[in-house]
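// run 5 | inverse folding | seed 20
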């Protein structure tokens, strides 16, 4: 079925849907977005009609809606420049000491109840079975991401930014799961737009078991990826005609990676440890939902276009990186940048006409430039950001007149 061609730019809406799955996903998305930002002419990623983010994608979407450019995100989150708002991975890995304390306080009560049960019903269960009750004392999460919320609150304060959904120029929806009802909550929607953006991001990235649930207005929220991988349907429901979706996680095919030479030899993920197994499970879970969602979108929104960007299944770099790792940020970001450019170039003949329908040009010259890096053109004149330029010029002025 052929898609309608808008008569002018006011006749259509563009949406951006960003999936999640841990810090690594956020790094991948920054690299992919930097590539898209450079090769797509006619679209401003800080002026998208509808932003939708879930998990780490919520963080990236909130930054874009808050006028933080892809270049600035590279400088802040990847290169970690010392100026402005330096970001440290420790923001994601603050131990949940309060939860540890609550768990320790539960242990005496649980033990006493189990002992009483064994005494009153000696043949009902063994001591080992009774001790399994200590699972109730496990903390609700290993880490707390409260520091992340505080960091974003500072980042969104001033400089034309805001921590209030209602003050944004464009629509922003950050999805989290209501822990007690299992429902998807769209922060930024009516009834949930009074929640600070920084708090909504904190709730959306709260992966169960990894982070403690986030309390908002007496309810508890967790990672919205539990329900859907990208929530592109939110943008489509808002009338988006073109949705650019980024899904950072796909299951790795180690045999295919070995055959294409991206790894030296085929190796079972079982030999890579528990982290690799859990990561593969998460990737498989998320990707299966993406495939189901894409099929449903084609039927429900036949007049809309969805451009999906995601890693290859034989991608050894993604295979060897932990989904919860923040190490090697620059390497992963550069890899995502290059692989996205390669993917767009390989699909150029199919994608270019689609983008053209919406007044967007896919610049083939940029895609074919093999010498490009995500670190190119991250700074303004003289290699400084705008704020740094002002400081340099001020120092130069004081030196001249002084």
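// decoded
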């Amino acid at each position: 079925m052929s898609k309608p061609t808008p008569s002018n730019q006011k006749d259509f809406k563009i949406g951006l849907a960003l999936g999640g799955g841990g810090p690594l996903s956020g790094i991948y998305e920054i690299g992919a977005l930097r590539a898209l930002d450079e090769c797509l002419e006619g679209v401003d990623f800080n002026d998208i009609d509808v932003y939708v983010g879930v998990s780490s994608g919520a963080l990236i979407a909130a930054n874009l809606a808050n006028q933080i450019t892809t270049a600035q995100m590279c400088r802040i989150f990847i290169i970690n420049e010392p100026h402005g708002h330096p970001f440290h991975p420790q923001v994601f890995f603050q131990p949940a000491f309060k939860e540890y304390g609550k768990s320790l306080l539960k242990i005496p009560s649980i033990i006493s109840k189990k002992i009483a049960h064994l005494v009153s019903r000696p043949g009902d269960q063994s001591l080992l079975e009774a001790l399994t009750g200590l699972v109730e004392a496990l903390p609700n999460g290993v880490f707390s991401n409260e520091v992340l919320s505080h960091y974003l609150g500072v980042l969104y304060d001033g400089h034309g930014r805001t921590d209030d959904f209602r003050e944004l120029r464009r629509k922003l929806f950050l999805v989290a799961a209501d822990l007690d009802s299992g429902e998807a909550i769209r922060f930024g929607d009516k009834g949930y737009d009074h929640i600070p953006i920084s708090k909504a991001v904190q709730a959306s990235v709260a992966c169960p078991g990894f982070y403690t649930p986030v309390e908002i207005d007496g309810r508890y929220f967790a990672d919205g990826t539990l329900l859907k991988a990208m929530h592109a349907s939110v943008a489509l429901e808002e009338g988006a005609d073109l949705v650019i979706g980024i899904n950072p996680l796909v299951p790795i095919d180690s045999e295919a990676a070995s055959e294409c030479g991206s790894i030296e030899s085929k190796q079972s993920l079982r030999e890579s440890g528990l982290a690799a197994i859990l990561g593969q499970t998460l990737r498989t879970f998320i990707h299966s939902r993406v495939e189901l969602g894409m099929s449903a979108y084609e039927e429900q929104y036949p007049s809309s276009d969805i451009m999906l960007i995601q890693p290859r299944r034989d991608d050894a770099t993604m295979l060897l990186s932990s989904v919860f790792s923040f190490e090697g940020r620059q390497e992963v970001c550069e890899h995502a940048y290059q692989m996205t450019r390669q993917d767009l170039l390989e699909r150029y003949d199919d994608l270019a006409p689609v983008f053209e329908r919406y007044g967007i040009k896919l610049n083939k010259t940029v895609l074919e430039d093999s010498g490009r890096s995500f670190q190119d053109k991250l700074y303004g004149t003289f290699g400084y950001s705008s704020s740094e330029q002002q400081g340099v010029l001020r120092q130069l002025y004081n030196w001249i007149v002084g």
